[in-house]
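We now fix the convention by which a protein and its fold are recorded. The integers have meaning only within a learned vocabulary of local backbone shapes. A record is reproduced here so that you can trace the correspondence yourselves:
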Amino acid sequence: MKLLEGKKALVTGAGRGIGKAIALKLASEGAHVVCVSRTQENSDSVAAEIQAAGGSAQAQALDVSDSAAVDSLVGALVKELGGIDFLVNNAGVTRDGLLMRMSEADWDATLNTNLKGAFLMTKALTRMFLKQKSGAIINVASVIGLIGNAGQANYAASKAGLIGFTKSTAKEMASRGVRVNAIAPGFIQTDMTDALKDETKESILEQIPMGQFGTAQDIAEAAFFLCSPSARYITGQTLVVDGGMVM
């Protein structure tokens, strides 16, 4: 029997990259996965890939910064599925730029998706989690939330906020058997890193003791661990997956 057999997971930002890898991993371990992204097309694609591999999934399009839409979707899902066991808040955007040139719109867009989105999703499911007295919430943060980065004041603030949010909600839910943890990925190989110039890649790699970029699968394995029974006594923690970059 698979470790997550019979469990139900909701993964935001599941349309590509890290979110997609997490959705595929949780499904491969037996969970029914609700794949949520901003576009129905991307959500459908990942759900179809899970189903083609013999897993169980469904697709939903959602703007996680829209409180009314979040409440509506979450309410419908809880009623349909009878509950959610795992929530992975992975939806995120970047709007990079130096602070002196950063627009208020770029600040708001980043905080609204990365931080407010996690708040809205978690709040919408909190009553259900507390009532069922079980479950795990994973917030995908970033090493940038730990060390900051020039040109990413908005992104760093959102991810640092997510780590603080994780600790606070973990303290609120622990007595009811609900665990809340964060994952802070380092530099992960994605379409964005593939587009970097070779000299830029070399400069980044010099900062990573293991000398290589991580993969989305590395983050998916960490997420699976935090959902699994092996992590039953872990809450309020930030698991840094970065090849040693910020140790």
User: Anything to note?
Assistant: The first helix runs from residue 17 to 28. The mean pLDDT is 96.
